[in-house]
TrEMBL record:
The chain crosses the membrane at residues 415-436. Residues 7-161, 301-349 form a coiled coil. InterPro entries: CASP_C. One of its GO terms (biological process) is intra-Golgi vesicle-mediated transport. GO terms for molecular function: DNA-binding transcription factor activity, RNA polymerase II-specific; RNA polymerase II transcription regulatory region sequence-specific DNA binding. This is Cut like homeobox 1. One of its GO terms (cellular component) is nucleus. Residues 222-439 form the CASP C-terminal domain.
């Protein structure tokens, strides 16, 4: 039997078991619901019967009390009649009234006795129906409990059977790489032949990737050499520019003569490179110890300035080439990383195919190198640390996540760090200025208040002193 048929049969068994489990759970839920509904209905019915029974008992007690009252009234009437007949004979009208009263009481007593008998029969009938209802409810409850226990047993059996087939996902995961083999391969070929063909295709793919990897490594090394040369050239150009700037600063420090054609007293301070450039520019006939020709220094400065501009332009071109080489190097590095990841995945496939019998282990250096990388990627400690870091990050509050992201953004970018520094400095300066202005305003207000109080006191002392003295004299008079 082929692998696909076995896998389909296992899937069919698992699906049937899951369907049976869901069906059993549904039936169990329906039985529980039905059991709860019937229990509630029986409880309500029993409660109603008990209520009717209590009412009938109350009515029977009331009727018994009324019958006892009527018996007492009848006995008292008989006793009074006997006493009256013994004392004296009453007229015929009174005897007729007493006979009528006695007969009415007897009729009422008979009616009450019949009502009591009817109530007693009702009570007995209700008790019998209650007993029968209890028996029926007990039998139904026992049947439902038996069905519930049977469903629970079936559910346990299905769950045990499902646990026994818990390795279905693992088998499916192991057989998943073999599905392409069974889909496009010939059904008559054995599994070993299909695995060998798949292994050959993977080896050819690995060889192609290895060749492309070596080509990319060569290109990367070549680009690194070019980048190194460009950096060395740029360093040399910077040194030359620094020397030229130093020479220019020396030339600018030389004092110009008072008039054209005047003798120079400090020509010996001109550096040797500038003298050589002047000799090359004006020819070898220039005097060594005489005065420079008219406008020679200005011409030399223009030459050096133009040379400096050329060097600056060349430096900018080299920097642009360096940036382009850096971008190319980054792109190649990312491509190299992706190829390395593909090679690791390919080695994982080779490792899986080597796990089958009949396939020996290889001792290639490339496979050994990628095997070490594959084992490093399967390191449980690194994966655990990544998961713990992710869990810690997910457990943070939203504002903590925003603060962490903002901090990472600011610290990872030079421009963001500069802006954050100057923004913080500006805020501190603004706070200091506001505090200084508030303190100065408070000091000015306090000084103004003190000055006004002093002026007011001086005014009172100066202009109202005589008035106060005259008023005091009038008071003493």
């Amino acid at each position: 039997m082929s692998t696909t048929s076995k896998l389909e049969e296992a899937e069919h068994k698992v699906q049937s078991l899951q369907t049976a489990l869901e069906k059993t759970r549904t039936e169990l839920f329906d039985l529980k619901t039905k059991y709860d509904e019937e229990t509630t209905a029986k409880a309500d019915e029993i409660e109603m019967i008990m209520t009717d029974l209590e009412r009938a008992n109350q009515r029977a007690e009331v009727a018994q009390r009324e019958a006892e009252t009527l018996r007492e009234q009848l006995s008292s009437a008989n006793h009074s009649l006997q006493l009256a007949s013994q004392i004296q004979k009453a007229p015929d009208v009174e005897q007729a009234i007493e006979v009528l009263t006695r007969s009415s009481l007897e009729v009422e007593l008979a009616a009450k006795e019949r009502e009591i008998a009817q109530l007693v029969e009702d009570v007995q009938r209700l008790q019998a129906s209650l007993t029968k209802l209890r028996e029926n409810s007990a039998s139904q409850i026992s049947q439902l409990e038996q069905q519930l226990s049977a469903k629970n047993n079936t559910l346990k059996q299905l769950e045990e059977k499902l646990k026994g087939q818990a390795d279905y996902e693992e088998v499916k995961k192991e057989l998943k790489p073999l599905w392409p083999l069974t889909s496009w391969g010939d059904a008559a070929k054995p599994l070993e032949v299909l695995l060998m063909e798949k292994n050959r295709s993977l080896q050819s793919e690995n060889a192609a990737l290895r060749i492309s990897n070596s080509d990319l490594s060569g290109r990367c090394a070549e680009l690194q050499v070019r980048v190194t040369e460009a950096v060395a050239t740029a360093t040399e150009q910077r040194e030359l520019i620094a020397r030229l700037e130093q020479d220019l600063s020396i030339i600018q420090s030389i004092q110009r003569p008072d008039a054209e054609g005047a003798a120079e007293h400090r020509l010996e301070k001109i550096p040797e490179p500038i003298k050589e450039a002047t000799a090359l520019f004006y020819g070898p006939a220039a005097p060594a110890s005489g005065a420079l020709p008219e406008g020679q220094v200005d011409s030399l400065l223009s030459i050096i300035s133009s040379q400096r501009e050329r060097f600056r332009a060349r430096n900018q071109e080299l920097e642009a080439e360096n940036r382009l080489a850096q971008h190319t190097l980054q792109a190649l590095q990312s491509e190299l990383d992706s190829l390395r990841a593909d090679n690791i995945k390919l080695f994982e496939k080779i490792k899986f195919l080597q796990s089958y019998p009949g396939r020996g282990s290889s001792s290639d250096d490339t496979e050994l190198r990628y095997s070490s990388q594959y084992e490093e990627r399967l390191d449980p400690f690194s994966s655990f640390s990544k998961r713990e870091r992710q869990r810690k990050y997910l457990s943070l509050s939203p504002w903590d996540k925003a603060t962490l992201s903002m901090g990472r953004l600011v610290l990872s970018n030079k421009m963001a760090r500069t802006i954050g520094f100057f923004y913080t400095l500006f805020l501190h300066c603004l706070v200091f200025l506001v505090l200084y202005k508030l303190a100065w305003s408070e000091s000015v207000e306090r000084d103004c208040a003190t000055f006004c109080a002093k002026k007011f006191a001086d005014h009172l002392h100066k202009f109202h002193e005589n008035d106060n003295g005259a008023a005091a004299g009038d008071l003493w008079q």
